[in-house]
Amino acid sequence: MHTQTILTFLLLCSLFTNPVIARPPNYDESKVAPYDVPDPLSFANGEKLTSRDQWPQRRQEVLAIFEDQMYGIIPPRPAVMRTELIESGETLNGTVIRKQIRMWFNKENKGPKIDWIFFLPKNVSGAVPAFIGLNFYGNQEILPDKEILVTDGWLRNNKKHFIADNRASEKSRALSAAPEASQSWPVKTLTERGYALVTACYGEIDPDYDDGYTNGVHVLFPPKTRPIPGNYTTSLAAWAWALIRGMDMIEKEKAINSKQVTVIGCSRLAKAALLAGAKDERFAVVIPNQTGGGGTPPAKRDFGENVSFQNKTFPHWFCGNYRKYSDNEEALTFDQHMLLAACAPRRLYVSSFPKGWFDPYGEFLSMKAAEPVWQFLGLPGLPAEKWPEENVPVSSTHLGYHRRPGEHGIAPFDWECYLNFTDRAFKPQTSNLKPQTSHL
Ligand code: GCU
């Protein structure tokens, strides 16, 4: 089923189940009302930043606003966090090392756990750069490799992925390795270009439905009161938290250069990647691939998915305090370009695809509205005055953007653009940039 069809279905469901109806999405550019863009370079009290030294303080202020008003608090590292190597070996004809590491949060090996998988290029000298991201359907989908554990976490039912009763089955092995798969994790390409991949399934962290935050890692930091506080950790914050814990683990992996880690994700998991990347400065590069609303595009711009719909359809993604902005976006004193800006001075690459629902033009506008922060810090911006054509990536060393036709997902073209961007960060001497990507 196409995303648009699913969304129409969800919209219809929400119309039937919710007494208050979500505002229908607007798809007409000429009907987008003018909106104000909050200045990322002014403090909340209106005072303008006058020196670069003030950015860390403003950045913290911005992050605190997003946690308090939109995604909920991202908890600190728990008192106990243990990792256990449960399996390792070689894969892809002996060219890649596979490591499966289980992460626990108590001494008894009980409660929530996360099964991470590492794919490390084999014949390389020294520590390599890495990508970390969460996957939708389990590690077993990534490669035709019987040693990969089939996830035992909650999954969204999906016939194409052989997921029934919210559980994966053996039949789902290697599904995302197929050339036509949309959520690809191209281990061969990544490792051949000298990168490691670290991933885990998001359903093991927090099942993706509104359960009042009683399952998944929420049991580690349960709400202090009921009703739940307005800034309580949402599912998006929990997924971001897990990526940050993944970074804690990577710091102990000698084969990876922990100063060269890119956090990536697609869709809702791109929102989580963006949040984790904005929050944790250990991520050198942040790549939110096609986030959809509540990620990259401006909430104040009424095009495609809107705040009202998000709050109604995905109440566990956004905290209670965000409800007040439904049909009231003008009350927002912040917007998504500020979350992008919180990645500065690190590197950020955003990508869009053409479904109106995802507001690709809005994503570009958010990048442009965030760009002044990089420039203020003396770093290059995004070298595009107008919305770039499809399939024409634009990037400086610090900001990159492209949009492409086709289906939702991380496609080979997207990976090619991302690898060119990260090569430029981590392997400037060897980066094989295509002419159209090399600006500034
Ligand atoms: C829906 C949702 C988006 C989200 C996407 C996904 O389309 O409206 O915000 O990004 O699902 O995660 O698949």
Can you walk me through this structure?
The two termini are 41 Å apart. It is built from 9 helices and 10 strands. The protein is an alpha/beta fold and 440 residues long. A 10-stranded mixed β-sheet has the order 1-2-3-5-4-6-7-8-10-9, sandwiched between helices. The structure holds alpha-D-glucopyranuronic acid.
Strand and helix map with partners:
Blueprint: H1 3-17, H2 55-71, E1 82-91, E2 96-104, E3 113-121, E4 128-135, H3 187-192, E5 196-201, H4 235-250, E6 256-266, H5 268-279, E7 285-289, H6 307-313, H7 336-341, E8 347-352, H8 360-376, E9 394-395, E10 399-403, H9 412-426
Parallel strand pairs: 4-5, 4-6, 6-7, 7-8, 8-10
Antiparallel strand pairs: 1-2, 2-3, 3-5, 9-10
Helix pairs in contact: 4-5
The structure holds alpha-D-glucopyranuronic acid (GCU).
The site of alpha-D-glucopyranuronic acid has 9 residues, from helix 1.
Bound ligands? alpha-D-glucopyranuronic acid
Count of helical stretches:
9
Average the pLDDT over all residues and give the rounded result: 93
Helical residue percent? 25-40%
Largest sheet: 10 strands, mixed
Radius of gyration: 21 Å
Strand composition percent: 15-25%
The tally of strands reads 10
Distance between the first and last residues' Cα? 41 Å
What order do the strands of the largest sheet run in, or round the barrel if closed? 1-2-3-5-4-6-7-8-10-9
> Any low-confidence stretches, pLDDT <50, length ≥5?
3-8, 11-19, 433-440
Shape: globular
By secondary-structure content and strand pairing, the structural class works out as alpha/beta
List the helices and strands in order.
HHEEEEHEHEHEHHEHEEH
